[in-house]
What does this fold into?
Amino acid sequence: MPHVNKTTNLDAEISSTDLGELPADVVTDHNHKLYIETVGCQMNMLDSELVVADLRKRGYELTQNIKEAETILFNTCSVREHAEHKIYSSLGRLRYGSRKNPRKVIGVMGCMAQKDQKLIFQKAPQVDFVVGTGQLAQVSELIEKARIHHSKNERSRELAVGLGRKDGKHAEITNSFQSYDPLRDPEMRPSPYQAFVRIMIGCDKFCSYCVVPSTRGPEQSRSPREIISEVKVLSNQGVKEVTLLGQTVNSYKHTQDGKLFRLSDLLYLIHDIEGIDRIKFVTSYPKDMTTDLLEAIRDLPKATRYLHVPLQHGCNDVLKYMKRGYTVEDYREMMQRINEILPGCSVSSDFIVGHPGETEESHQKSLESIREFRFKNSFIFKYSERPGTKAAERFPDEISDKIKKRRNNEMLKVQNEISEEDNAEFIGKQLAVLVEGPSKSAQKAVDASSDTLAEQLVGRSNCDRIVVFDGSSRLAGSIAHVEIFDVTPTTLIGSIVTKEYQHNPGSSLPILQ
It folds into this structure.
């Protein structure tokens, strides 16, 4: 079926003139400086990487200075209200300055673009185009269209979004959200040695508080053939660790050449790719944590012993309000299988405090769940009502911000205590750490033994714990062995394990002890 989406011009129909036949100065009369601001999840980070790669191919150059950029993109998130406020604030600062430079083009893409569509033009009339999550391939064309309109002293106000859940047949809606993975841009990655790989888009879980099913569209899994081809390209670019992405990544399911592939099958295929040292995946859904997947992680050395499986709440009544589709008892059974099949595996979670229906008693149950399951870490959020969700339609947001903040802090305190206690168990142990590069603080320290300048490096263990240590930046991209001597709730602190060499008289090469 051909691609279907909603592409409209709110002020006037776009001319059908072939862009290639236009005078060059109409389309290219700008400085090719691109600024992009990204908020939200790893999926948004990947979307930005793909768009930037496409624009680089067309001669654009990234800049961190928004004032010098003549092409400005905002990749947005709608999961939390704060993320939307941040984008509108950034747009507000551009409202008047953009009028002074007719070459400046401003675009909004991502989840907020898919959800709010025309509202963005109302709140930020300086925006030239709005692009949904499944139409990223159209960004470059919309930028050029905007410049055509600017050359005529007009604003394009172009809208390109996927169909809403009620706008057509399921196949049409699904087809309006395209997976867009044509190119990669190393500069946009977490590090040159780590990359995200989208294996599926969309979500069909319909949790009551969540906008993702409407902003990301129906659940679709990419073919194993496409994914393996992409991972091989990344490996050739020097990537050592790939993180497989999906809104509920362990729900992955795709039939190729008559065979059904699940996530466990995909892990085996990626494991055979030369150059890839580690494989991770996020975010997992508790009910889809199958035994075959856990056994694949157990049997594949490159698969990390880390799972992000959000519980969201420790009270069954609130989980029912949330429409999560499982109980605390279901989650407990899952954790028992994880601990039996993957002893020592780290598990992290998400929690929402202040969700409609949450009492003080149910909040205490969430705190108890952290103590019971001893998560490596938890991402804790205060509930914010999102328009268009079932929770917003059915349940009043009656819990005050003061109570939400207090419960958030209480939960954070318990989680930090658990994290620090469990991290302390690593003191004196040696861990294999994939070195990402200099730490954010990147503080320099003089190595007393050699009087050379050492740099604080950061990496992650096989169970996804952050490790910092001093060493040469040349270690980036390698696996280093680090002995842990101190911890914080979020970080292990260690030192490189030095190797002693003993000369072998019968050989010109040293022998590693």
Remarks:
- Residues 12-28, 443-452, 500-513 have pLDDT under 50 and may be disordered.
- The chain is about 30% helix and 25% strand.
- Residues 401-424 form the longest helix (24 residues).
